[in-house]
Inverse folding.
């Protein structure tokens, strides 16, 4: 009896139903050579040194990391995180409200031991390490190449270094570093949990996602991803971790914990102007297009829920084929679209997306190769071009953009929608071609 091997729409070997076993084998390649670790550690060490030098010369470094540190100090001093629009320990150049859950201030407590600029250097160093880890996990999660197929990243360690250096030019990456943001760290926590720890059947699966959600609420969506894809124990562990951390904050500072959930969280205006060009979400798109119409945010939410239907279809299609990274990216980009506020530095998820798209480039015929090269190039160009910085923005200028400016100004938002639509169209055309070919075979000779 011959054994048939399932293939995907491109004729490539698809993962067998035992997708966890396939993931474990692919993730076994996550080892990194000492020389690669040395190379990847140089830039983070430079960031720490830069922070120390900036502290000695009183430089302005890391607006957001300064707020994180101030939040930690505020918590330690017993003051309120949300009663005022600024925190007592913020420097004059970072007078911003604390918009994170109170559990984030608890997790940021180690930053209180260092000056503001050194805190930026430490967060930057960890963020750069997190980016390298995310790239390495993404490469390890790719399907194993055919034995006779060329693959220029046959050395994952070397490929990680190359991607790492190139990705420093992505706007979400360098803006995250410039601001001292934690997006790269949160992404690495989620990837490590969902594609490595949980994929290996560890009892710690879901915990890192729960911790990430305690820092910034949007990772809660990934608990739903775990539940939908059958990893219900991981999802429950993540939810339990999140709830326990919230309960801990009610014991430490009940006033702030209660105020965050009842007053601060619903107040999106505390985060910033929803229509600003830096907000790349459906909510921002609708508010910019309708001149802040009262119904714009509700319409954006409705569109987001409608997009959940094809997103769920894509997610499950990738999951059943054993393509866990692709399935995870569907959830990540849908979350960015549906979130009321998705600043450009939140879009660091383009890092594993580009790794995935590049991995697909050799797997095509010379006749159709240009389509994938163009698609991958356009995705990368959107996040390298800094088009959002070129357009006029601020002081409500976005409300008066012309049509072509709205298209460019919503480039991040349109990218995953167009990419998903192109993928669905391609699958549909290939399915139609297969049906036509099968019908031609069934026609008797001579008819």
């Amino acid at each position: 009896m011959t054994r048939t091997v399932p293939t995907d729409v491109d004729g490539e070997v698809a993962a067998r139903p035992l997708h966890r076993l396939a993931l474990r084998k692919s993730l076994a390649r996550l080892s990194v050579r000492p020389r690669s670790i040395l190379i990847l550690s140089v830039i983070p060490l430079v960031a720490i040194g830069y922070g120390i030098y900036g502290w000695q010369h009183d430089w302005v470094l890391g607006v957001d990391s300064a707020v994180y540190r101030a939040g930690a100090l505020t918590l330690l001093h017993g003051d309120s995180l949300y009663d005022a629009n600024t925190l007592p320990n913020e420097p004059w150049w970072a007078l911003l409200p604390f918009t994170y859950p109170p559990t984030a201030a608890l997790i940021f407590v180690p930053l209180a031991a260092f000056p503001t600029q050194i805190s930026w250097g430490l967060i930057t160093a960890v963020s750069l390490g997190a980016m390298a880890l995310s790239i390495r996990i993404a490469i390890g999660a790719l399907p194993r190449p055919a034995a006779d197929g060329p693959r220029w990243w046959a050395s994952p360690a070397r490929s990680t270094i190359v991607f790492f250096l190139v990705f420093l030019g992505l706007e979400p990456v360098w803006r995250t570093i410039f601001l001292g943001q934690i997006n790269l760290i949160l992404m690495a926590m989620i990837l490590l949990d969902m594609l490595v720890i949980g994929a290996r059947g560890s009892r710690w699966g879901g915990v890192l996602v729960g911790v990430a959600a305690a820092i910034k609420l949007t990772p809660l969506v990934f608990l739903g991803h775990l539940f939908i894809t059958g990893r219900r124990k991981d999802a429950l562990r993540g939810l339990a971790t999140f709830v326990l951390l919230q309960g801990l904050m009610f014991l430490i500072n009940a006033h702030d914990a209660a105020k965050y959930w009842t007053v601060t969280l619903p107040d999106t205006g505390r985060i910033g102007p929803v229509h600003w060009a830096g907000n790349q979400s459906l909510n921002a798109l609708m508010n910019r297009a309708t001149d802040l119409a009262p119904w714009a945010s509700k319409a954006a939410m409705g569109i987001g829920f409608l997009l959940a239907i094809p997103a769920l279809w894509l997610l499950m299609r990738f999951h059943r084929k054993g393509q866990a990274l692709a399935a995870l990216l569907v959830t990540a980009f849908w979350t960015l679209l549906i979130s009321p506020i998705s600043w450009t530095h939140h879009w660091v998820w383009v890092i594993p997306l580009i790794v995935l798209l590049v991995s697909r480039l050799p797997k095509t015929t010379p006749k159709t190769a240009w389509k994938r090269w163009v698609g991958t190039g356009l995705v990368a160009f959107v996040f390298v071009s800094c088009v959002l910085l070129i357009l006029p923005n601020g002081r409500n200028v976005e409300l008066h953009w012309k049509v072509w400016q709205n298209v460019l100004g919503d480039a991040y938002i349109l990218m995953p929608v167009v990419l998903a639509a192109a993928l669905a169209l391609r699958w549909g055309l290939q399915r139609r071609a297969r049906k036509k070919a099968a019908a031609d075979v069934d026609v008797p000779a001579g008819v």
Observations:
- The longest helix spans residues 411-442.
- Residues 1-19 have pLDDT under 50 and may be disordered.
